[in-house]
Amino acid sequence: MELKLGWLYPKLMSTYGDRGNVICLQQRCQWRGIEASIVELDRESNANAFQTVDIIVGGGAQDRQQEIVMRDLQGAKAQAMREAIDGGTPGVFTCGSPQLLGHYYEPALGQRIEGLGILDLVSKHPGLEAKRCIGNVVFEIAASPLAEELQEMLQTPATIVGFENHGGRTYLGNVSPLGKVIQGYGNNGEDGTEGAFHRNAIATYSHGPLLPKNPFLADWLLQTALKRKYNRAIALQPLDNSLAMQARFAMFKRLNLLNLL
Ligand code: GLN
């Protein structure tokens, strides 16, 4: 079996360490004998490339880089991304990436940047004097098919731990939140929502990187991608997650949230 991992604009959108999500997916494939190649989706790629990948990974970026990406993604690439995501290609989009999948992003300085409108959400930076949302974030996966599938996998409700670092605030329209904030800011620090979930796309403010800290999410992405590609349910070979679980234990202990584990 093989999977193609599409990585959005690695040169422009790797400010916050989210490349760890790509490494995690690739490594978990290799450990299981699944071939995983990385396809860089960037300014040089043509639109078709966005549709030939089995999983899409997009990381965070600073406002300037984000603007370059958002401009490059208009037209045929935007259409290809929309078809891929609406068609159910699984993906994990962190921080700056969900902002560009929404309708627009208003940076602290300069003009509003049009997004792709794939997710019904908008993001606004309240200005340079406003507090940045920085720190550990813990959230519970909100009711959704994802929540049910993770519950089946884990035999307990899925709780995510990550690290957020954003100025922009995101407000959801008609799209489900990814999670309910237990600790931290999440989308905007006001309404208790974190991220968004649409078809098989996970949008989140959670860096970490997210997947090595929450390996069950990585496996959900792999399992979903394999099922779509090979048209049958594929049980993933279990892996030793003890190191990740130790890291989670340390994190939850520090945050006084051991009761959630
Ligand atoms: N530019 C965005 C913001 O500050 C995204 C930051 C990020 O990706 N961490 O909100």
From TrEMBL:
Residues engaged in binding substrate: R132
Enzymatic reactions: L-glutamine + H2O = L-glutamate + NH4(+); beta-D-GlcNAc-(1->4)-Mur2Ac(oyl-L-Ala-gamma-D-Glu-L-Lys-D-Ala-D-Ala)-di-trans,octa-cis-undecaprenyl diphosphate + L-glutamine + ATP + H2O = beta-D-GlcNAc-(1->4)-Mur2Ac(oyl-L-Ala-D-isoglutaminyl-L-Lys-D-Ala-D-Ala)-di-trans,octa-cis-undecaprenyl diphosphate + L-glutamate + ADP + phosphate + H(+)
UniProt xrefs under InterPro entries: Class_I_gatase-like, CobQ_GATase1, GATase_3, Lipid_II_synth_GatD
Superkingdom of source: Bacteria
Active site residues of this protein: C95, H207
Pathway in which the depicted protein is active: Cell wall biogenesis; peptidoglycan biosynthesis
Keyword tRNA-binding: no
Function: The lipid II isoglutaminyl synthase complex catalyzes the formation of alpha-D-isoglutamine in the cell wall lipid II stem peptide. The GatD subunit catalyzes the hydrolysis of glutamine to glutamate and ammonia. The resulting ammonia molecule is channeled to the active site of MurT.
Quaternary state and interactors: Forms a heterodimer with MurT.
Name of the protein: Lipid II isoglutaminyl synthase (glutamine-hydrolyzing) subunit GatD
